[in-house]
Structures are given as structure tokens and as C-alpha cells.
Write a structure and sequence with these properties.
The protein is mainly α and 374 residues long. It is built from 11 helices and 7 strands. It has a 3-stranded antiparallel sheet.
């Protein structure tokens, strides 16, 4: 398969995914009767295997195994935690080693809650017809829960608006998922997550402590990453594919085979993802204006003379992940790789895959991919 880089001019999109811009943080059971994945079969296991091997199979396997152990065996596979005071009194090397081990459990519980949230949102989308989205006019995401309203047909007229609604929708269902789990056998997970976060707050810096204040805030950070990156990548690929003059449904078909960029970004270490993300952005069209991914960093791969999929340029990838020289100067705090949204505790498609496929589906449904063939 030969790749070709599309570098079309950046049209004056008036949209911006402000609330949907990535705020990468660790996150990551589908309900019964969950709809089938509306994208192609390559997206799940094949991508997971390709990128998983590249980002460190040992860590990735430990996370997946732990998440599935917690799902099947519950509290039997967790141990007693020290108090925050006892942790603070430990010698730094011992403290770090203990937290490194607990981080796998932290990510595993987060992955279970994230997967449940994403599948709940997709499963119940018909209750908020036509798009399954909710929206609030508030900038504080907690206020979304106070006054959500269904996004009406025709009101999503930009990728900016799609990103805002997509984030609000995940907040709405995240709150419902936490509330539902508290009344189930798995309710201990919410309490355990809060206890784990209390330990990580002991060593957290000022910029991180807010994200660690409670389980809902912590999982929200990862879902914010997934929704934001998904919408921004759809916007990017829409521009790339405009150069081929494809109608909307053909664009969506190509995008359905193009989950790799979202998955590759989710595989980055938390200390590196923000640096890489900002390196991938194009300059704003006006000072202080919106920024989107720069199409120069991506390519459209061809098959039989037709667009097949979009991905990062091959020369920008190191070990299967987008790379910038700046991250070589930043030593990761933890060896645990990436966003747990790339892990599926139920052995289904990872949450990042669902977030990507639904973003493509929504962009098509709302008309953001342009006109279709007559």
C-alpha cells in the first residue's frame, strides 16, 4: 500500500473544539444489547496488536490482565492500601515503587468505568434523538449535570459545536455510570478509586492535583482526551479527503478505517502526550483563535488508486507512536503507558475505538462531512 501526503489549504473553519480539546489523563461493561461497531473490523484487535507491541507489551498486558481480573474477581485481587500519611513518610524510592505498582490498578479500575460510560452513552443514544447528544451552556463541566438538554436536529453546524456536545454527553453518562455502579456489586470500585487517588495526590504537583481530586474528575480527563482527539481528527481527515472530492459516505468509510491516529495518541505516556499534541497543531488563523491538527503531519494511504485510510506520516512514528524531539528531554514519571481508554476490560473494542467510530458517525449524520453523492 503506497502512502500519499495530502496538504490542502486550511479553510477558514469557524469551529473550535475548546471543551473537547484533549486534556489527557488516565481513564480507561458494555451493557447488554450494545449495538455493533459501525466501523470496519480492522479497527479493534489488529490495531491493538500493532500499537500494543510497539508501546511496551509488558505494561500493556499487565493493565489488560488487571482490568479483566477486577471485572471477574472483584475485591479478591486487590490488597490493603497504606494511608496517605504512611505513604508520605516512606523513603522516596520505596514510595515511588509502591505507587508504580498501584498505578496499574488505578488505570484498570478507570478503564472499567470508562468503558461502561462510553457504551452507556452509545447504547442510550436513541433516548436523545436524533444524535444521542446532550448539551449545556455552562463552561464548568459539573454544571452540565444541572441543566442538560437534547441537541436538536440541525443545531450541530460546526466541528466546534460537535466537540462541545460530545464532551457534555460523556459527562452526562459518566455521572450516570458512577451512580449506577454505586448501587451494584461493583460499587467498591468507586471507593477504591478514590482511595487510590488520595495516595497519588501525596506526590502530585499543583497542575495535577485538580484532576486527582475524585474518581469522576479523573475518569473525565481521559474521556475528554478521547472525545476531543476524535473530533479533531475527523475534522482533519475531512480536510485531507476534500482533496480527493469524495462524497460524505465515502469519506466516512475511509475514516472508519482510520482509527490508528487516535489509538497511537492514546498510547503515549502521560508526560509526553501534551508535548506531542501541541507539536501536531497548526498555527491559528488569527491571534488567540482556534487551532486544529496540521495536515502536513498526516498522509492519506492509497489502494488501487483510491483513498484507503489516513494516518500519521510514517517518518513521524517511533515505536508506533507520534514522536517529537522534545519528548526525549522529558523522563516519564511512571512507566505505565498511555490512556487506559485503549484497553477493553470486557475484551471488546476499546473505548477509544468506540469514541472514534461514533465521532465519524456523528460527523456524517450532522452533515459536517459535506454533501453526499446524488
Amino acid at each position: 500500500m503506497a502512502g500519499g501526503v495530502r496538504r490542502p489549504g486550511r479553510p477558514g473553519y469557524r469551529s473550535r473544539v475548546t471543551s473537547a480539546s484533549p486534556e489527557p489523563a488516565p481513564v480507561d461493561q458494555p451493557g447488554e444489547g450494545a449495538p455493533e461497531e459501525p466501523v470496519d473490523e480492522e479497527v479493534g484487535e489488529a490495531v491493538g496488536e500493532e500499537v500494543g507491541e510497539a508501546v511496551g507489551e509488558a505494561v500493556g498486558s499487565r493493565l489488560a490482565v488487571k482490568a479483566r481480573q477486577l471485572t471477574r474477581k472483584g475485591q479478591r485481587v486487590v490488597g490493603q492500601l497504606p494511608t496517605p500519611e504512611a505513604l508520605a513518610a516512606m523513603p522516596p524510592p520505596k514510595r515511588h515503587a509502591l505507587l508504580e505498582g498501584l498505578r496499574v490498578e488505578l488505570y484498570a479500575i478507570s478503564s472499567i468505568l470508562a468503558e461502561g460510560t462510553v457504551e452507556r452513552a452509545y447504547r442510550h443514544r436513541e433516548e436523545r434523538a436524533p444524535y444521542g447528544l446532550v448539551r449545556s451552556g455552562h463552561t464548568d463541566w459539573r454544571m452540565v449535570l444541572a441543566s442538560p438538554h437534547t441537541v436538536e436536529e440541525g443545531s450541530v453546524d460546526s466541528f466546534y459545536n460537535l466537540g462541545k456536545a460530545y464532551v457534555d454527553t460523556m459527562v452526562f453518562h459518566l455521572d450516570q455510570e458512577f451512580d449506577a455502579i454505586r448501587h451494584q456489586e461493583r460499587g467498591w470500585m468507586v471507593e477504591r478509586l478514590d482511595s487510590l487517588l488520595a495516595l497519588f495526590r501525596v506526590v502530585a504537583g499543583p497542575a495535577t492535583k485538580g484532576r486527582l481530586r475524585d474518581g469522576l474528575s479523573f475518569v473525565y480527563g481521559g474521556l475528554h482526551f478521547g472525545t476531543g482527539v476524535s473530533v479533531q481528527l475527523v475534522e482533519l481527515m475531512n480536510r485531507l479527503l476534500d482533496a480527493d472530492g469524495l462524497p460524505a459516505h465515502e469519506k466516512a468509510a475511509v475514516m472508519a478505517r482510520s482509527s490508528r491516529p487516535a489509538y497511537r495518541l492514546a498510547a503515549l505516556n502521560l508526560d509526553h502526550v501534551i508535548l506531542v499534541y501541541h507539536a501536531l497543531l497548526a498555527p491559528p488563523l488569527r491571534p488567540g483563535g482556534p487551532q486544529w491538527f496540521d495536515s502536513a503531519h498526516f498522509e492519506v494511504q492509497q489502494a488501487d488508486g483510491r483513498p484507503r485510510a489516513a494516518d500519521f506520516r510514517h517518518d513521524l512514528l517511533v515505536a508506533g507512536k507520534p514522536h517529537t524531539a522534545r519528548i526525549e528531554t522529558v523522563a516519564p514519571t511512571w512507566v505505565t503507558h498511555g490512556c487506559p481508554a485503549r484497553v477493553s476490560p470486557s475484551a471488546a473494542s476499546p473505548p477509544i475505538t468506540r469514541l472514534w467510530s461514533w465521532a465519524v458517525e456523528l460527523a456524517l449524520q450532522t452533515g459536517l462531512l459535506g454533501p453526499d453523492a446524488d
